[in-house]
């Protein structure tokens, strides 16, 4: 039941080598780049216009803004009062700043204590030699409880 395929109707095809596809790729790439540059040179695009201008301060008010956030605890001037350059206008609440300083100081002391431990371990000492300043901070009038545990 196998019938042979009739091939006399088939059109013989030309086999294409690699060179044909390389040429076709280059032609497509050049045509694409050329089309882009043609579009870029002819397409109407919005352009900015350079102008001159002046900035005028309305009234003599100036906006005052702190570089760091915070809570204003006291305003030292009243509206309409003249002030001189360098004169303080307000005071910020120091509670958050003091808490941050204490936290950073505790971290510094803990790192210093760890350094003393590591140096003692490196030198094969039987006991850790903490600096006198660090011992005073752990046993002074306001001892740091975390530092006292480490010492």
UniProtKB/TrEMBL annotation:
It comes from the Bacteria. SUPFAM superfamilies: HlyD-like secretion proteins. InterPro entries: MFP (IPR050739). Keywords: Membrane, Transmembrane, Transmembrane helix. Gene3D superfamilies: 2.40.50.100, Helix hairpin bin. The chain crosses the membrane at residues 20-40. PANTHER family: ALKALINE PROTEASE SECRETION PROTEIN APRE, MEMBRANE FUSION SUBUNIT OF EMRAB-TOLC MULTIDRUG EFFLUX PUMP. This is Type I secretion membrane fusion protein, HlyD. It comes from Pseudomonas savastanoi pv. glycinea str. race 4. The lineage of its organism: Bacteria, Pseudomonadati, Pseudomonadota, Gammaproteobacteria, Pseudomonadales.
